[in-house]
Write a structure and sequence with these properties.
- It is a single chain.
- By secondary structure, the protein is mainly α.
- Helices cover 79% and strands 0% of the residues.
- It is built from eleven helices and no strands.
- α7 runs parallel beside α10.
- The relative contact order is 0.09.
Length: 279
């Protein structure tokens, strides 16, 4: 069973160890946070402006899973089309600005990392964006079309459907953002392992709880009560958890310490061989 006390104790030890790093005062941290938020806001504004230019195409892309089954969106309030245009432009702007925003996040947390840990910045950014887009694509290509077909055509076949802009956009974002965020599981595990809060052994030991949590999430997002269909949604998340165990093994301080010790041992052996040849 998950030991919460052990996790809290590890978190406390990690904070104490990193307190010795050369850092900034509280006011310097606040000033740095303000700077990163402002830079992120500026990049989001630029991304929003760029996405607004193509908001009609983005809306057509958003409606595609619905139009494929012969349905179209309706609106019940005069402001609904404008609100949808603003929402899709904001979402598109956030995606366009995400590399710069993630870089600002990294710059903010970098002072709390050791020098050797800061080399992960570009792999972190690339993996974060790739995993989010993979999750969003999985939701758009498989989950959303399946949900529209089952909910509107199958369960709603005896009724007159009227899918409003507000309801559809909320449903669309909940699936796309939900899966995009859930696919970030290896990144979350990476940071927890990097700081020594979880270990590969801990993750493997508690895999049964992870499987339970994954199937609960799959049951929520799966449009069909069919268990085979639910497995289709659960399997990618389970694979990501297994990948996360491998990431934890690679990033955990104990593994890095072992690698450094082996490296020092090899260097010492080479040194001894050189000294032996000189004699």
């Amino acid at each position: 069973m998950v030991d919460a006390g052990e996790a809290i104790e590890k978190a406390r030890q990690t904070v104490e160890q990193r307190a010795d790093l050369p850092g900034m005062t509280l006011m310097e941290h606040l000033d740095e946070l303000r700077k990163r938020i402002l830079y992120s806001a500026y990049s989001l504004l630029v991304g929003f402006a760029a996405a607004w230019i193509f908001h009609d195409k983005i809306i057509a892309f958003l409606q595609a899973p619905l139009t494929k089954i012969g349905k179209s969106l309706v609106f019940t309030h005069p402001m609904d089309p404008l609100n949808l245009s603003l929402q899709v432009s904001l979402l598109g702007g956030a995606i366009l600005a995400s590399p710069f925003i993630l870089y600002q996040v990294w710059l903010f947390i970098a002072p709390g990392l050791y020098q050797k840990e800061r080399r992960f910045v570009f792999p972190f950014m690339g993996a974060t964006i790739a995993l989010f887009l993979t999750g969003a694509a999985f939701g758009y290509c498989y989950v959303l079309p399946g949900a529209m077909k089952i909910l509107v055509l199958d369960f709603g076949r005896n009724f007159t459907s009227m899918v409003t802009i507000e309801d559809y956009s909320s449903f669309f974002l909940s699936i796309i953002l939900g899966l995009g965020i859930s696919f970030e599981l290896p990144i979350l595990i990476f940071f927890l392992a990097l700081f020594g809060l979880v270990s590969p052994r801990f993750l493997w030991k508690n895999i049964r709880y992870a499987i339970l949590a994954v199937f609960i999430v799959a049951a929520i997002i799966c449009p069909s009560p069919d268990p085979w269909t639910m497995c289709v949604y659960a399997i990618p998340m389970l694979v990501l958890y297994i990948i996360g165990i491998g990431v934890a093994w690679w990033a955990h301080p104990a593994h890095r310490k072992s690698k450094e010790e082996k490296k020092r041992a090899k260097e010492e052996l080479r040194k001894q061989k050189r000294e032996a040849k000189q004699k």
